[in-house]
């Protein structure tokens, strides 16, 4: 038995996840791992079969597999020791193999894609839902209750369903599920995620913005007024839909702002910041489209509270994130680049003095498809199912 | 004589420059053209020879021809009816042809590059100086007084030579010339440029920022405090010097801020805004490097003065620039893209409401190598020599 | 009168076109210019009005204005002294301004786009037809006979209408017009273009391939067998249609071959080479899609005829193109880059020895939207209407 | 003991490497794994320590860590269960941390870089040598004999030291080591690699070319004459050295051939093909530089032997590679894209008919930094040390 236990740790440690210096924090989850993994014979049997991905211990359904976030889930799970994909849906690609839609995944042994209405969830334990905004509420409403669900759409992110209707132009069709949904900003709401059945995975912009701002607001280090957020995103955030505006010739070698004044991520950002502040915060938020596929930077201009210094901001972020695997405050003065995190689940951040006295500049970078979407989704499901949250997520950034 | 006059107008109008609706404004300059151009026989003789560029009526010296701004001057002058290049210097490329350094220019008939110390200015009427910051003061000090000079470096942009020393780390070596230098932000300081002998051509960031802000500050429509400028630039602004940081593999598909808090363009921006305000303005200015060669966008976040509306800002910019050839306020709600101006001398701008009441977002775009450098330089020299300022500058943007 | 003549030359020479060293070749066309342009008073009147583009002496209709080649025609004509656009059609954008579809052209004074069925051709002298393949035959069949037409589609390029049907999957619907159509590879078929009413403008790949190969085949310097053509194209050649495959995220940072064995340009290339050879030539032709918007390179691998040397190939190309404005053989050993010609109507080429004895490597580069489409179309219309063929085409390449 | 055995398989299988369907082939290597890994207690102890990378069982020295291939080794080893980096050298960056040179690797626990002359190899078992061509021979000559070495430079690739001198312009300084060196084209020379002490890791172009051609030549399916290879590479192959030619502004949005006729990879390619043919083969090889960071495609034009069909070529490649983890022949008609393999160790290939009867077109793609450099190097070291060769290499491609 103890051998089995060690073996299971062996399986996890060292290359797919690690726990440097925070054994105590993760202790509960580790014990959970041992329980889930079972005895030696079960383990070895399971592991020996694991080259067939669909024999892994947690059976994953992937809804909306034919988009970029779906493909990214597949990439990440390719090296996950416990999660195997047993169901894939893609309405317009039903009957096709993943390899025909995403040829870079042909080496993976994956189920044929089916239409979501034909999906059999009886052999599925958990679901990543990568469907478009607006269609997701109905589909999730129809899923069996035994499923753990991480929803990557915006459909369950806004607690206030009136706000949802205002920004998305249609009434919320699953208000009772909305009450149940937990907002999955992992490092901020980890405890809530642990016991959640349905997690609303945060948007990419809100992730890059809330991670640095929430700790500063909680500690009352910055003013609530005049928070100016200038965000820059790669194009993959717009998905794989064929749109003239996203053609190579339209995007390459040029930039522009979009959704000025009225981007749909604004209420999500304000919800999170207001929660931290215990009072309503309205932000200035302007996203920009960059000629790059992956990557996101938020440059955030804030007023420090009376008497607060840059040093105070830095120290608060340092303490808040020092034990985190995926959120890294850089050394003083070091500027985060989106290249630093491409293809990985990391968020790098730093804080700088402004020329205007009393103001600070905060910069954070993520990969919009990983920490801004599929990576954080996997991090959340790891937690929901009691696995170490970094399992299968320790990909280092691809650079150059 | 009248035929000659008409002919000269013919030469100018319709394709190389045009004057739609502002004949009266340009009348003086047009008359100057006629005077310069001379009588019929001179004109026709001159024009017939003009396929040899160095026989055009104004003989141009191009110092520092081997950099990007030098090459851009050559590109623009290729179709200029009056300016012909008769001298090119490039110390490290002395003895080489321009075509060997910039093969895209092999069809141009250009003088061999010489070292600046070997340059003969006796057959030169005007000079574009494209040399690096710091070396320019000494060289311009040594030039004959009969030359009109447009300097594209930063060496004469800051009126306060102490400020120059503070930001550039060396004492100003030509303080008497500094007094003579006129800051060449054409649309704002056109009258001063007209009579200048030495024009300090503005930096790219300052151009993109001052063009929208100066009219708003002059009209007291925005507060002087908390002007937040988030600028994004293509890489060509860094020049052709071989630096690891500017390698393709380092830049492509990624973004980052640089010079946070301390970019050298900050004092130049503040000088221009403070002049407009008649009081010291300190701005927040953060430049970002974009994975694109040309193009620049400044996204500027401002507080409107008490009682002022977005409509007021729009109207002020509309009136200020309605007769301008190269500065265009877009229709309400239309977002400028850097693609809209690539390869051209245009600045497109617009103003938008912010989510935070009382604030506004101003966006301007230019091509950093044209309106942000060589194009504005040519616009200035046209003015200094009495030609219509759009002469040789009506290239339409290259898109896609 | 002689003054008028000189003035007209003045208008043309020096910046919009030039004639370096080939007065004799162009003599006829120059005389034609004089005749068209008329006397001094006519000229000056005309020129003074030319700031209103639609008052220029030749009234141009642009069919299919909302695509990239249409926009490129507008860009080129912006500085053309004689051609003004008076009619623009775009079925799906009927009623819209060009500036709303291509904001980089908002400074141009252009007619509102109409549906082609609503077009009034009574005030049009010549037409650029930028419509999709397959629809063009019917539309051109319906045009008034007084119009000069340059068709940029593939619909009239193949003389053999059976071949057209084989490659385009539908019968040719205007076989009588096909007989009339002249293939507009300007430097090769200039005399035929002169008297043409309908010119089939060559495809981009065929232009880049035939320009170097035709003179070599004509001079019997290369074998007809085993001509291997590896071509690389920017994405803009695929047009502005919204296709998943052409999204930024699908194209950036990756390459691939397409149309392997069966690209539609193959019969067009073989038609031109076979004509030059007076016998049927079958080539190996493989196009590749590049992560760039504009630019095309053909790398061509050939066997030299018995006893022929690289020197012979070089000399033949040198002689063939020495008087050409737009086709440039580079100095020996200099490799053409697509950057050398971006945004311009030039074709740069060179020839190199192969490691395999008896073989040669030929490289040619063009901008697929200029020399490969709209630029060559304008070159052809200039010729068809008796203007110097470089009129309005002397844009220098945009680099960097 | 049997538990330990199973555990060790467990550790290996399922996510870091897998052995689908070729247990028999790998049997020897698996047994070696068991021997190396040791009993249950050793294993679990080892694994529990493995979060500290430098406690892994094989101690790796990385010479030349500050270049792109060095950084790529670090990225790949981050998830390798057995190899830990204990020594890093970088002469010009001696004393610095890897995170300061490559900030995307700051989360890795790595030794400080030292100068190679100060390196202590007593605690190193194996070395990746990522030094520049020309300097490597002397350094490897000085290394202790107990080290296993994979050299990523070109210094030991050419068996004929006269040929080395001819192409690299200097005499070979370690001819006795050259005799010992094994050329590490893994799938072709796996048996030789197994027992090698010094492996010369193949160049990126030669890898992409030999993998498809060697099996076809061995089976006498293609003619030796007139093999035309048109290769296209991303820029990262040129390394991180600051060169004007590799600046973003020089590379983006343009392409060109380089090293026409005389690229240094030609003799390496010909050596491999000639070995397979048992007679001297001379190829036509023209590399092209692509505006992308990673990725390489070789488009290869060949004549089939008398009576051979495309089907025969396909079948030979299918059989040759059907058991390979990293070389994949695509389904008939499917075109490989470089995107399909970016960031991974895969080589995708396919074969197509040519329009010219009797000819075929072969296309292969790799990531030049992985299968073309660091990935294949790790694959080789795995083999040299008796680990399953896919250990730590099952990263799926990063797309989009």
From TrEMBL, chains A, B, C, D:
EC class: oxidoreductase
GO biological process: L-arginine biosynthetic process
Keywords associated with the record: Amino-acid biosynthesis, Arginine biosynthesis, NADP, Oxidoreductase
Active site, UniProt feature: 204
Catalyzed reactions per annotation: N-acetyl-L-glutamate 5-semialdehyde + phosphate + NADP(+) = N-acetyl-L-glutamyl 5-phosphate + NADPH + H(+)
Annotated family: Belongs to the NAGSA dehydrogenase family. Type 1 subfamily.
Protein name: Probable N-acetyl-gamma-glutamyl-phosphate reductase, chloroplastic
Native species: Theobroma cacao (Cacao)
